[in-house]
Amino acid sequence: MSSHRLLTGIVSRRTFSHNTTTRFLTKPPCLGIRPSRQSKALTKPRLLSLETIHNYHASKPLASQPEIPTTPTSAVLPTTPSSDPPLPEYTPPTTGLLSKLPPSWVPYAELARLDKPTGSYYLFFPCLFSTLLAAPLVPAAIASPAAVVGTSLLFFSGAIIMRGAGCAINDLWDRNLDPHVTRTQLRPIARRAITPFQGLVFTGSQLLAGLAVLLQFPFECFWYATPSLLFVACYPLAKRVTYYPQFVLGLTFSWGAIMGFPALGVDLLANSAALTAAGCLYTSNIAWTVLYDMIYAHMDIKDDAKAGIKSIALKHDKETKQVLTGLAVAQIALLAGAGAAAGAGPAFFIGSCGGAAFTLGYMIKKVDLKSVKDCWWWFVNGCWITGGVISLGMATDYLLRYYEQKKQKKPEELESA
């Protein structure tokens, strides 16, 4: 087929008139041909061949074609920042428990926060509270000190394991957020010392270890404990959708306030006094969790704002101390309600409630929310100060009631003999 037929086959003569065809071919934007009146090829477009077009382009460069830049692309295109900021240099621990572990174990110990056990203590205290409050309510006889101590030790081991599992779940969810927060930049998954898959496997092993501890309790505890896993998984997500993730954390960390009752054989569904006491103690611990975690959140308040992480500290930055005061009042009032439902004596109300009121009031007055160091000090030490006085008051009340019952039993045993 000739070039003339090729062109006329594409542009049909029947469709266009001579003038239309001339205009069509004299302005081909894709060819960049600049028409000239002296050009015979352009005045007779039907005789324009492919060879003519080729020769025209070979003799004349396209006027509208821009020059190809010789500058490298990287110099022309703007550079975009990396998704992860540069991380500071990691220094392996030289003191404490982690310094004595094999180097390959250290990232896993850090993932479980074995070097920062304060969170485990906060998880343990509600378990201890409920154990001490439930002991006098055990049917037939008050639980013995040996039973209380043994149950508390099981709870302590479970708190260490499950707090580690919760931290691992949190770090898996936050693996893309932690590099942007100064305090969390060097966490094992954030600095890529552990892959997400390795973290997931480690979390599964911790959950299995926690299950082994749970099965040492009466089997009813399994049904009471299982729902708490939902809150463990949801807490990291709450930071993304609400300014009040501390309440979700409170639902999680306070779960032990329920567990002491079935652990000692107290049936919550059959004992209305125990159910009321457990409910008040649980909500009291939720208020306590929100209180201390609000102080904790002030350490990251600037980084959280940049990273888009929500917290109650960001929402109520200007009125934090008023919110802390309200939470403390709620905590103490609910704690007193738990004691009243359980039939606690003066030692509980003076020691636990009065002690909590004094220590919380002093902490709220003294803490400098603009100082990261001061917030951390009160977070760590407030755990033992407030948790300690509440436990001491409960333990004193339990022992007084226990020995009072023993005294009453001796005359009855002598009479029966």
Automatic annotation (TrEMBL):
Gene3D superfamilies: UbiA prenyltransferase. Pathway: Cofactor biosynthesis; ubiquinone biosynthesis; Secondary metabolite biosynthesis; terpenoid biosynthesis. Its cofactor is Mg(2+). It catalyses: an all-trans-polyprenyl diphosphate + 4-hydroxybenzoate = a 4-hydroxy-3-(all-trans-polyprenyl)benzoate + diphosphate. The chain crosses the membrane at residues 121-142, 221-238, 247-266, 272-292, 323-341, 347-364, 376-395. It holds the Pfam family UbiA. Its EC number is 2.5.1.39. One of its GO terms (biological process) is ubiquinone biosynthetic process. It is a multi-pass membrane protein. One of its GO terms (cellular component) is mitochondrial inner membrane. Catalyzes the prenylation of para-hydroxybenzoate (PHB) with an all-trans polyprenyl group. Mediates the second step in the final reaction sequence of coenzyme Q (CoQ) biosynthesis, which is the condensation of the polyisoprenoid side chain with PHB, generating the first membrane-bound Q intermediate. This is 4-hydroxybenzoate polyprenyltransferase, mitochondrial. It comes from Pseudoneurospora amorphoporcata.
